[in-house]
## 1
Amino acid sequence: MASMSPVTPAAAEPRRSTRLLSNTKPADADADADAEAEVERERSTSRGGKRRRKAAGKGTGARKRAAKGKRKEPESAAGAMEVEDAGSGINGDVYPEEPDSEEMKLIEEEEQADHGEEGSAETRGARKRVAPPRAQRRPEASADHFVGEPIPDDKARRLWPSRYETKDSDSRSRRSNDPEEEIGAQCHYTSACVDDAIFNLNDDVYVKAGPNEENYIGRITEFFEGTDHVLYFTCRWFFRAEDTVISPNLLEVHDHEHDQKRVFLSEEKNDNMIESIISKLNIIYVDPSKTPQERDQLISNSDLYYDMSYSVAYSTFANIPAENDGATDSEVASDISCEEGKPVADPVGSSDARRETATLLDLYSGCGAMSTGLCLGAALSGIKLNTKWAVDMNEYACNSLKHNHPGTQVRNEKAEDFLALLQHWNALCQKYVVHSSNSSGSDLAQMSNDDEDDENEALPNDLFEVERLLDICYGDPNKTGKDGLWFKVRWKTYDPSHDSWEPIDGLSDSPECIKEFVQRGYRESILPLPGSVDVICGGPPCQGISGLNRFRNYNEPLEDDRNKQLVVFMDVVNYLRPKYVLMENVVDILKFADGFLGRYALSRLVSMRYQARLGLMVAGCYGLPQFRMRAFLWGALPSRVLPKFPLPTHDVVKRGVVPNAFSQCLVAYDEIDDKRLKKALVLQDALSDLPKVPNYQPNDLMENRINPKTEFQRYIRLSRKDMEDYSFGDATPSPKACQLFDHQPLELSTDDYQRVKQIPFRKGANFRDLKGVQVGENNTVEFNPHIPRVFLPSGKPLVPYYAMTYIKGKSPKPFGRLWWDETVPTVVTRAEPHNQIILHPNQHRVLTVRENARLQGFPDYYRLFGPIKQKYIQVGNAVAVPVARALGYSLGQAYRGALVGGQPLFELPENFASVGQAAATASPVGVVEK
Ligand code: SAH
């Protein structure tokens, strides 16, 4: 049985775990050394305990420069999304080609471009607010004063004990320049007179900001005379949307807007001189589940309103529980503590909620790793999450998903077409289901595609008669050049080979068929309707944020078509309004253009009135020999509990933290926390039970398995049933225990195979070990002038030119061998050894699809489909299954109404990484909150 221990408080800036593991050198040792040095640099700038949001103003160093030069992960979204043509060879693939110089150059430039860019971002998650610097204060010149008697000493000491702690009296009375040091108090008051106006505790006020800045907004929580005899008030800040991580730029994005009257209550406070109070304003709390009309009525007489809290840590926007909603002055020191995340209405979850079911839509599903993991994790918390719908434009990925989730409606189409289809489908359901009595063929006129050409008209009736409709789509299935609504038709007396897509207005003489199709489709929920989806998950590709600088739209990232899917994803959320949202993406969405796209995603969710929380998770921390950091964004309706992020289970070195507003989003333990983390996994833990395979391995099924050797291997080999994977319903046709799928490597070209055979079986081996190469100054490779160049039978050089020049000859990656005691930085979509370390430790081949799948935490029963390169793409694109599983557990807990409370992180149950259902049943998985 697991236990929970208290975790990082939301407002504190934790010192993240950055220890180095001595015996677990990652494959890319040089790059990692850089990264480690960087982490050290990063740490030294962010150390110093709490970085409180001291208030704004000049001269306070409100903005810090970010650390420079982060390490780039060897993956690009562009590479990640590549779709290559099938050719000959294994599964119809061609041998990997020699990369041309252009390809190598592109990758190289990409790496360098990325290095140059990082570090430009400013710290801007939360504008700081401060009174004028202390040195400028002249209390004696001010006519402002406290009013009435001081609060009795014993009461003041009880309410604000730390203000009265006797410290070194010298330092108390000295005017400290340390903005972090708490100011000691002589006595406290309940009112003050500033510019002839009276202000009381709990008043909401405008506070003077820096030049050219809008006034700040805050709530007075203390009035006190400092030991330095200055008159202070303590202010708890409200944030306007543009003061939060959402940032002012987002107010210019025209697909959504923020209510000008809405502010967010934070936990951030600091002390300012009472002269900086400008005037009172009226801010009311509004329950976020109120309808817009109710809200409008409530706020009509107030200046501003708030319905959620905001915290820089994990960029959290969350509910404020009803009992803490107000600014009442009943208790002098009503120091509201947000217990965020609690549902404010319609609470769900009860102890007998076990096996509650919920529906999931997986957008940009790929082969389904993310939803698979979510479902596995949710099951462990007692929620039967069912991937009801999945959408991906890649046919092979859809085939994989279909095989592994036979009950899922898998839609092989573009997400933008899917959204249009949903809108049409809703209209059809309204006509034929909700108002079915008065539907008729003439209604079709309204649904028909605009300006259809004659070529799209129905086929002559005497030849073809519709038997029934089989499917529906929006788009252009017949490549006519126009998008519209189409039905797939089975023709009477014709076999399925004659099925065809027909436009809706070509079917105007078959209204009954449409009606019958829509009614059946509605019954079977072939498509989601607004409000019918519990959870939407997905990783919209943002290819416009990687690649060469000259191709990236830094100023307007949303204008780049390659980033449009982020908008589409949010449009789908807006249309369907699921209870929960989980979006995954590369960390670059928080880096590129000062994190514009990440901010946009948060901004959309918040403007749709979702609670939101952002976290950066490292896959290795959940029990994989792979680093892989990714960004995850939760969204939850105000009526639900906002999920937390699951703390790591494994002790992995964190490399490269985002150096800007998102630096407080890393999901990790504080360095100081007592934690029981398991040792990081290495390659051997994950792969040592896999049979030997040659470079050419034509079969995707092997029958000779040896026994598992590690806990990881035992877990990854569990059956569907034992993992509690419901996707096959009651039938659980897991492969037989002896069967192993997809243990095939991408076959090396003849030349590359010759080269690989000469790379020794040794840790750290790579092309530098080939004959004729020597390492010169600055770790740069050069040809040994005394050794004649060696040529392969094909006439090509043994040591290819691209390897010598890659990253100006400094890279150890070309033809690099992995070693058993290493972790890989990130499993990518390509399997060529030319510019990445992907050779097996002691076999002359690249890692197989299954080996990559293991490193991504796919259960062995999960089969992949398509040409081999497509399988690598599906695996490389995936969300690491254990990460999704941990998030699924968190989702399940939130869904059940558990894990309420202000902490953004929680501890997973003990042995979570390896617990299967059998074990879970014997000792139910649960969380004990401390
Ligand atoms: N979450 C997935 C991986 C997603 S990778 C997993 O865990 O397995 C992103 C996917 O988006 C790719 O499979 C790609 O085919 C798909 N994709 C890219 N553009 C798309 C679009 N416009 N519509 C639908 N799918 C798209």
## 2
Amino acid sequence: MVKAIVGANWGDEGKGKITDVMAAQSDIVIRFQGGSNAGHTIVNNYGKFALHQLPSGVFYDHVTNIIGNGVAFSVENFVKEMKSLQERGVPKPHVLISDRAQIVMPYHVQFDVYEEERLSSRQFGSTKSGIAPFYADKVSKIGFQINELFDDEESLRDKVSHVLELKNATLKGLYCKDTMSEKEIFDKLMEYKEQIAPYVADTFDYLYHAVKQGKNILLEGQLGALKDTDFGIYPMVTSSNTIAGYGAVGAGIPPYEIKEIITVVKAYSSAVGAGEFVSEIFGEEADELRRRGGDGGEYGATTGRPRRMGWLDLVATRYGCRVQGTTTIAFTVLDVLGYLSEIPVCVGYELDGKRVDAFPSTTKLKRAKPILEVLPGWKCDIRGIKRYEDLPENCRRYIEFAEKEIGIPIGIISNGPSRDDIIYR
Ligand code: GDP
């Protein structure tokens, strides 16, 4: 049985926590896209962790964690993350890295920084992890697949030389920066090869057999539907497809095997980076929600920068859930809203004087204004509650209102950051 856990919104919905909870019953957890540009925060018996690249099943000894071919794989971050788990007493996880995954090269990070500098006020708000230059090179066929590191040295040197012709021309001509030597890049690749050799595998073949044997497999998405390259708020999107369907490509699993798509929806909105955000709020109202949000405030797990805040946007969320092909919603961070006596939610957009309920493409989205409806708050702490019936009435009304507007069942409710703060309906 293959299940996907993905985001409906701009990311940071709490996918890491839901994956960590569900990994208890899984054999395999797979990251299939993105890289170390976002963090999944997990709070469990080992402490609080922000995983950037490792799958969220790394805390369980019975789970095989796979970094799929669709991932932007940073060797440096991988080594760092594995080390930090070890330092904090987590037993060494079982990790396999696809030999078809590609490597984030040192120059990808540089190019990300230089390009944001060049764009200045028009920048994307990149986390500067090299993700956009990485995916651009992948589709331009000048990326490095991991198996190439294990090819004969001559072929690899030839490829490095061919790629550097282009890279150095851009460094010099566009960014006015120092160029790179073939030796420097080749040596770095050899260093990478040594570091990852014990983990590299033909994960396609491994997964083919695992699916045949009926193993429980989780696909773990990064970011959310509104950051998807195709369906998100282009161009203020990430450089990979964040939708469950891409799990089939980024891991190598037949699409029809993905039987359940659990889409994580946060009970309010937050976003990082630039781009359209119709239900955004500002000033003290936003500061308070940011301070109280998540587990210790809404600040980027990779960059530490304050996230933009907003009310639950049901237009965007309904769209995000449809794009994902959601079968069940996991509604998270609901406990945070307990301080409000009234909770605004965005139920529609006003676009050129008309009400719209469908999420428009970016050029129209720029002109959209939120139509808000105000629901009564519950004014108490709901952490520790284990049964749906025991939630305050106004809290259940909030959940049921969202469910009706989105049109997909909310089967899981998260009322706190820990593994135990979970209610199944
Ligand atoms: P992800 O990238 O989707 O995994 O989300 P993040 O980890 O960036 O952000 C979610 C934040 O909310 C983290 O700090 C989590 O510990 C926290 N979190 C997840 N679920 C809940 C919840 O139900 N309540 C609270 N208060 N925090 C939660």
